[in-house]
Amino acid sequence: MQAQKTSSKSTKNIGDIKNRKDGVAVYVNRDLRSKLIDGLLTALLLLLLTIVVVFFVAPINRQFGYPGLLVYTLILLALSAYTLDRSLNTRLPETTRAWYGLIGGMLAWNVAVFSSRMALSDLLSDAYLLIFILLTLIVITLWHRVFPISVKFFSQALLLSWLCQYLQSKAVIMDQFLKSLTGSFNWVSYLAILGVMGTLFWLFFYSDRRIKRMWGALWIWFFLAMLVYVTHGGAI
Questions:
Q1: 63-94 b/e with 16+ CB inside 10 Å = b?
Q2: pLDDT, tens only, 75-132
């Protein structure tokens, strides 16, 4: 009788250990998949979106001129407003709302850029610097008390889009003080590479929630976009 009880307890312990190991394996696989999808894949998709949106500008401008560019900008404006509206829908999962916020913020920046081109003004000039500083201060003030998570992603994507192109436009001036290292790679390029590596390290070893990994994806996109801007002369 005692032997049967001991055998039963041993079998139960073995089963518990096996279930525990299976649970850990499932958690590790799910965690790694989240890091790849919510982090790395999201960053690459954001970079692809940036390239695709800008890619159509030149052919539309050649084929249809100012009216075509105006219609294209209005379409982007409508999409930006739609994604912002969807991002505020609290019935959607938090990560989905964050996705809508990211897309809306990037589209909003492109609307601002294309509008300034049609007005023959340079949105990246120092004349607009104070406006974006003011916008940044407003975002910082409202960040914790007012903004839901989706609007945080929207505003962050908008501001980082501006910062990315602004740094690229000023890289040539800064190179007069910090000379380029080799070829098309300058100090901004190496800074962007370090930024990507540092964010990836944080993503895979320290991030513990899906929404945090999406923040990491935004920063990976920022550094990758800055690298492409600098090394390819504003190809995106």
A1: eeeeebbeebbeebbebbeebbebbeeeeeee
A2: 999 999 999 999 999 999 999 999 999 999 999 999 998 888 888 777 777 778 888 8
Q: What angle (nearest 5°) sits at the alpha carbon of residue 136, between those of residues 99 and 178?
A: 100
Spatial contact of 43 and 195, defined as CB atoms under 8 Å apart: no
- In this prediction the pTM is 0.82
Q: What is the pLDDT of residues 153-187, one digit of tens each?
A: 999 999 999 988 887 777 666 555 555 444 455 67
Amino acid (1-letter code) at residue 113? V
Give dist(CA 217, CA 105) in Å, integer: 14
Distance CA 215, CA 98 (A): 9
Amino acid at 48: L
**Cβ atoms of 222 and 232 closer than 8 Å:** no
Token code pair at residue 224: 């990758």
Q: Which helix (H) or strand (E) holds 147?
A: none
